[in-house]
Design goal:
This protein is of the alpha+beta class. The chain has 15 helices and 16 strands. The chain folds into three domains: 291 residues, no CATH class; 112 residues, no CATH class; 58 residues, Arc Repressor Mutant, subunit A (Orthogonal Bundle). The strands form four sheets. A nine-stranded mixed β-sheet has the order 2-6-7-10-1-11-12-13-14. The longest helix has 22 residues.
Length: 486
């Protein structure tokens, strides 16, 4: 068998999380909406209507481009890309061709531990995939096949997309997934896209070909369309690689021409759809209804200066603080949760304690009550709760109940504390009476503690917490018990 090398490049379509669509004022959130209700004359392509570019979408795409270390063009324009599809209402797509928004960037990514890199680098050493360009366009609608009929929902038509096209730098399905995961983290971190693949907000077209090692020339490729999960991306590339290897052995060489295939998730195989289109098939020409876009150097630098720390840097910081890889990834995938974690960490200066509050107590309450991440309390609300604990107003035990009620009801910490009477008993004389009662009520535990069984003290503290409804500081009670028993 020949020593063949796999060549992979990706096209990533990411929906931008704007309030309105790319060229009109329709609601950009089509998820679970009644079909064909978030549409208007513009996104339906009615004659006589004019598209108006979404400034917010252009800004988010520029943020993404700079986060990928691309060069943002000072001048670019939109083009019409002509092709027929039942859910493309205009009969063409407004996209960018020869003058895209940005070009020549890269993404550094890490491979899974233990996976050998064909580039000679191992886990944690970083691998790089170059970005050829990033351009803007609008999405098509959605087709649903029911029996022998096809239903067309145009709610998604006109959604703002950025298409990110890589160089053919990836050498395996595992590399492609690792790169795609890092790219998604970047887009989410900078707020350019929610990139929720379950909702179709991020999709991949993957091009794969083979060549003999040592040969630089690229051979005809197979493009796999519309992969909507990391699992589908890996499975499809793995299958197509094996299929192309068998074809090479049978025919003695690579594909004769570029082809487009579809991935059948239920059967785990690809199906040839057509020969791959070339640029001339789309009959591109500049969009006559939209003037060119221009960006000053100052505008570009202002966007660059507003970017947060990117995921690889944040991930390393979290790992240095003692979080494990999965905890760090949860924070990178959920910006609102991350902002709470960072605020609490800055307050406590203790990553372990912060992890317990945010990733155990808060996240656990969110999951228990079926809350979405958009329903998370504001970071200041959590800090207000920590102030109550630090001042001695409530116990750390009561704080757990407050967190759950904050998630459940959306009420502020102070209101919950007052409503449920959770204010901690701080009066020294009252505490002394409670400690004396505890000693009298637990003679066996007191005797065990005197004999050196220190864990017996915990049982007495537990009795106090139960009797007071958790309204005392267990550390202070423990100290007073030791003095009282001795």
């Amino acid at each position: 068998m020949r020593n063949l090398e796999v060549i992979i490049g990706l096209e990533i379509h990411a929906q931008m999380n704007t309030k309105t669509k790319m060229f009109c004022g329709c609601d950009n959130n089509a998820w679970n909406k009644k079909p064909n209700t978030t549409v208007c004359e513009i996104c339906m392509g009615h004659p006589g209507t004019l598209p108006v570019p979404n400034r917010e979408a252009i800004g988010k795409a520029a943020r993404a481009a700079l986060a990928l270390d691309c060069t943002v063009a000072s001048d670019c324009h939109f083009d019409r890309k002509h092709y027929f599809y039942p859910d493309l209402p205009m009969g063409f797509q407004i996209s960018q061709y020869d003058f895209p928004l940005a070009s020549k960037g890269y993404v550094d990514y890490d491979l899974p531990e233990g996976f050998p890199s064909p580039h000679g680098r191992g886990h944690g050493e970083g691998n790089r995939c170059r970005i050829h360009h990033l351009h803007l366009e609008n999405d098509a609608g959605k087709l649903t096949h029911v029996g022998g009929k096809t239903l067309c929902d145009f709610n998604r038509a006109g959604t703002p997309l950025m298409e990110i096209v890589t160089e053919p730098d990836l050498r395996s399905a595992v590399e492609a997934v690792a790169f795609a995961q890092e790219l998604r983290s970047i887009l989410v971190t900078i707020g350019a896209s929610e990139a929720d693949m379950f909702k179709g907000m991020m999709r991949f077209d993957a091009s794969i070909s083979l060549r003999e090692k040592g040969i630089e020339k690229l051979n005809p490729r197979s493009e796999i369309k519309n992969l909507n999960s990391f699992k589908a991306l890996e499975r499809a590339l793995t299958y197509e690689e094996e299929r192309l290897r068998k074809l090479w052995e049978e025919s003695g060489g690579p594909l004769k021409g570029n082809i487009t295939v579809g991935w059948l998730d239920d059967t785990g195989c690809t199906r040839v759809l057509r020969e791959k289109e070339d640029a001339q098939d789309y009959r591109y020409f500049p969009e006559p209804d939209i003037p060119p876009l221009t960006f000053s150097a100052k505008e570009i630098e202002n966007v660059r200066a507003s970017l947060p720390h990117l995921p690889r840097m944040q991930r390393k910081s979290y790992l240095i603080h003692g979080l494990d890889t999965s905890q760090a990834q949860i924070l990178l995938d959920e910006p609102k949760l991350r902002s709470i974690f960072d605020a609490v960490l800055d307050y406590t200066k203790d990553a372990h304690k912060t992890s317990g509050i945010v990733l155990t107590q808060l996240l656990g309450a969110m999951q228990k009550h079926g809350k979405a991440m958009k329903d998370l309390p504001h970071p200041d609300s959590i800090l207000d709760l920590l102030d109550l604990v630090a001042s001695g107003a409530i116990s750390s035990n009561a704080a757990k109940r407050v967190i759950e009620d904050m998630v459940k009801t959306g009420k502020p910490a102070g209101e919950i504390v007052e409503e449920h009477g959770l204010t901690q008993i701080a009066d020294s004389r009252e505490l002394q009476d409670i400690v004396a009662s505890a000693i009298a009520a637990n003679p066996n535990a007191v005797l065990s503690f005197k004999k050196g069984k220190t864990q017996a003290l915990g049982a007495i503290v537990g009795w106090v917490m139960k009797e007071t409804g958790g309204k005392v500081d267990p550390a202070r009670v423990s100290e007073m018990l030791q003095k009282g028993i001795s």
